Amino acid sequence: xxxxxxxxxxxxxxxxxxxxxLTVFLVFKSLExxxxxxxxxxxxxxxxxxxxxxxxxxGMVKKNSIKTNDSEIxxxxxxxxxxxxxxxxxxxxxxxxxxxxxxxxxxxxxxxYLKAVKILAKHDExxxxxxxxxALKENK
Length: 140
What we know:
Layout: H1 4-34, E1 38-39, H2 41-45, E2 55-61, E3 67-68, E4 72-78, E5 83-89, E6 101-110, E7 113-121, H3 130-139
Parallel strand pairs: 1-2, 5-7
Antiparallel strand pairs: 2-4, 2-6, 3-4, 4-5, 6-7
């Protein structure tokens, strides 16, 4: 019926197809387990049920909301519609300050309180490290 070369080519194409399919499956499975999307405080308030997995909440640090003590920091993330209280133990990034963007990753205790394990300060595309900015000023 079919020659030996045709059968080998068909087998080779089948093996390549199966390898690609397996690779794509493993990549998507890995991403499914490791990708964490961030939500706004309004989206958190409107969740049908409380998230038990790790969640990221993004927004602006509310003015006059940062309270620190020996080992932790408390602040409020707002999207100018709703607010979320965040508690974090550890050091915050240098760009973290009131009125600036922030993403807090952690676990929701209720719809108004997040126990953060990581704080990511956001900046716009115009950000320039202070050292580079000073070097440019000196070179003018």
